[in-house]
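Possible regression after last week's pipeline update?

I re-ran a chain I had predicted before the update to compare outputs. Posting the input and the new output here so someone can diff against the archived version. Not blocking, just want to make sure nothing changed silently.
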Amino acid sequence: MKISVLRQLYMISKYCAYSLIIQCVVASSLLAARDVNAQKQSIEDIHVNISEQNKKLSDILDQITEMTDFEFAMNSKNVNLQQSILLGQYSASLATVLRDISAKAELVSLG
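New output (post-update):
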């Protein structure tokens, strides 16, 4: 009786390990398939046209989001989204625009 209980416990453990491995493989395959359609362009290759002179930081980021489908996340305790930024007219890469916004708004990257 004791041997059969141990054998059953061993079989259950083995099947649980197999099912965990199969789930990991399937999940990673699904995630990889989803990333195939992800945007592969660098922000240096994406060009934006901004013609706003003096606008709130939140409005400028919203405008960039509408043009590029990039979304921005930040902690509103550390960033004043209501501050006005004087940009001028831009027809440049997204990286250049974001660097200029970062410098003028005195934003610091943590990464």
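Follow-up from reviewer: compared with the archived run. Residues 47-105 form one domain. Marking as no regression found.
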